[in-house]
């Protein structure tokens, strides 16, 4: 449990500190290169849905994702307690699971509370059935006096790696003039923790689950 708590705490601290910094120092949509690198940028966007900018269903979809994250976190706590009783201590299992656990908590915090602690943010406009971005730099306000209410905040994303940013020549058939960008998705530390944790479990699955999955 100490391993899980340590990994979870470190990831959460980095995740929340980076989100607070971006939210209170960047204009929405602002993008700057990191150390002068065009392929590594800090680009501020907000995401009402899942990792890497995916979302669906407006407010109902957002509420659904919050509930799913709560069940995921609860299920992982159950597994951690079970593995503790079984004496499972392998790092191949516990560290990746702790990374996924921390990532889920990190994004859950944004969705549940950011609308209550910041004075501005992306909101859902029911008159046009879409999320409306905002301008300016956000400020922290007393709890409950924010731009929105419980479970209506958005996840803050900022990590952007446009390794390839190329405009197809106009002379090319079908694709001429199109912009090709890889990797175009913008994400955060919590998303990265979930992705890396899941990848580690897949790569080291035989060591993580030597006797097969046991839930």
Provide the domain count: 1
| Unreliable stretches | none
Tell me how many strands there are: 8
What is the SS-derived class? Answer: alpha+beta
Characterize the largest beta sheet: strand count, sense, and whether it forms a barrel: 4 strands, antiparallel
General form: globular
Topology as a string of helices (H) and strands (E): HEEHHEEEEEEHH
Percent range for helical residues? 40-55%
Radius of gyration: 19 Å
Mean pLDDT: 87
User: What amount of the residues lies in strands?
Assistant: 15-25%
Spatial order of strands in the largest sheet: 1-2-5-8
Number of helices: 5
First-to-last CA distance: 17 Å
Task: Give a description of the structure.
- The protein has 215 residues and is α+β, with helices and mostly antiparallel strands.
- It has one domain.
- The protein has helices spanning 2-25, 58-86, 91-117, 189-203, 205-208, and strands at 31-34, 37-47, 123-125, 130-132, 155-160, 164-167, 179-182, 186-187.
- Strands 1-2-5-8 form a four-stranded antiparallel beta sheet. Strands 3-4 form a two-stranded antiparallel ribbon.
- A hairpin with a 2-residue loop joins strand 1 and strand 2 (37-47).
- The mean pLDDT is 87.
SSE topology sketch:
Elements: H1 2-25, E1 31-34, E2 37-47, H2 58-86, H3 91-117, E3 123-125, E4 130-132, E5 155-160, E6 164-167, E7 179-182, E8 186-187, H4 189-203, H5 205-208
Features:
four-stranded antiparallel sheet; globular; about 220 residues; two-stranded antiparallel ribbon; alpha+beta
Q: Quick recap of the structure?
A:
The chain has 215 residues and is α+β, with helices and mostly antiparallel strands. The protein is 46% helix and 17% strand. It has a four-stranded antiparallel beta sheet.
